[in-house]
Amino acid sequence: MAFRWTASPKLNDQKVSQLAELINVPNLIAQLLLQRGIETFEQAKKFFRPQLHDLYDPFLMKDMDKAIDRLILALQKHERIMVYGDYDVDGTTSVSTVYSYFKKYTSNLEYYIPDRYKEGYGISKIGIDYAKEQGISLIIALDCGTRSIELIDYAKTLGIDFIVCDHHLPGDELPKAVALLNPKRKDCQYPYKEMSGCGIGFKLIQAYAIANDLPIEDVYKYLDLVAVSTCSDIVDIRDENRILVYYGLKKLNENPCIGLQALLQSYQIKDEYEVADIVFGIGPKINAAGRIADAKSSVKLLIEEDFHQAMFLAKTLIENNTERKDIDNDITKEALEILERDHVLRHKKSTVLYSEKWHKGVIGIVASRLIETYYKPTIIFSEVNGMLTGSARSIKNFDIHDAIGACGDIVVQYGGHKYAAGLTIKKESFELFTERFEEIVSKNCTDELLTPEISYDTEIGFDDINGKFFTLLDQFKPHGPGNMTPIFRTNQVLDAGSKIVKEKHLKLMAYQNGKKFDGIGFNMSELFPLVSKNQAFDVCYSLEMNEFKGQKNLQLKIRDVKASV
Prior knowledge:
Elements: E1 4-7, H1 13-23, H2 27-35, H3 41-48, H4 64-76, E2 80-85, H5 89-102, E3 109-112, H6 125-133, E4 136-142, H7 149-157, E5 161-165, E6 179-181, H8 197-211, H9 217-220, H10 223-232, H11 239-254, H12 258-267, H13 275-292, H14 296-303, H15 307-341, H16 343-346, E7 351-354, H17 363-373, E8 378-384, E9 387-393, H18 400-405, E10 411-416, E11 420-426, H19 430-444, E12 453-456, E13 458-459, H20 467-474, E14 488-495, E15 499-501, E16 505-512, E17 515-521, H21 528-531, E18 537-548, E19 551-563
Parallel strand pairs: 1-12, 2-3, 2-4, 4-5, 5-6, 7-8, 13-14, 17-19
Antiparallel strand pairs: 8-9, 9-11, 10-11, 14-16, 14-18, 15-16, 16-17, 18-19
């Protein structure tokens, strides 16, 4: 796949120099900070030294006072409370956090995760009816509920109140819950809008502790789960989320909850776990239960307090994840074969595919994998109970949630975010939906948008890279949306003995102006002829510390290579 390289906007040199002098860093570091919206000494201090006391007052969130009043009443009256959450990582970590915290204060508490296949996403009638049978009078809904207008009305007729803790985009109408905690509602003045569902649940227990003068340390115990949800849900890691993830990773590395300890034991023993370990290691295992079996097993693991039992539960999740990998690999292969055979489908600006045989639990992963090969907005459908359920994934700067909404009456229901959404349509509407969706994408997607982009921060020379520079750069972590890993471009580089390793990876050895660096390009063996021609080339990369046989060396993590002009 060919990439277009785009440089970050040019900054005012005087502004860069002023910030560099103000905080005593090289101009290059000051430039990277300015590109991330950090312009003052105070902002830089908060960026490099996040502090828990800088977390926002949870009572700034609309309805938080109502939520806490209702919770206090429920606990005083010994009401039965249900903690209800979705079946993905965000939902299960949310439920685990809120359930674990409140079970210290009441025994009249249970949790509920809907069945992906029988109930679908979010709040379900089956779940509400079950709550009624169990004598539940208050449901705390996490990572769902903002659009469940009719179901929350229905619950009210049964004498069940709702506190909704959600981060999905609201519609024009809001549910008549006792409290709707969602910073994205238009009338909410909370200073930061981009939290995960578990992050909202964390604010709920933070508020409860403050209102009742309880130890805040008991709230911070759950920061590792908040970090897992925030990183896995690919939400912004700026502002308040940066503090939560920074301290969540600290707890994950120093004293994780028993369930996460068990998962880490089976994942990979490391000196230090980072965001990537959550996104590619821990998160998929927690997700796998809801995709393949029962997501309640993820909650059981994350609330478990006995390590031996946690190891047993973790083993089940790992087996689920292995099965999930096999299924999604098979479906991805099948979907790619369909596109390779069909010239018309392959040349559309969108990809919409369906098979009644495809497993609903993995179609979102398959959609993401297809984008790696055919870079275009993608929806994969499977059949559930006579309806088509789809998972949608998008490309940079295209709002797939809005595009689905624009398909109007063809869509039975939908929800999600700009880059990932879920939807349901009638089986007989598939062709019509495919045509309408293609029209919307064609109208709004230019050829440039449909070409994958590598956005680099700045152009540097190998002379700019040294230990001090990397030490400062390393303090930009944790990385994620809003604070991505800095990417650099270096031009006119020459080969110094590059080779292919393990048949598919590029082991780059390059020099410029007498300074040499090694680099690694995973699955980039096709670039080897370009770098080994004794001709100058340009390279896009990030920097990382490579440790091999006890030796640490700075290396380039290659993003792309092009012949120098």
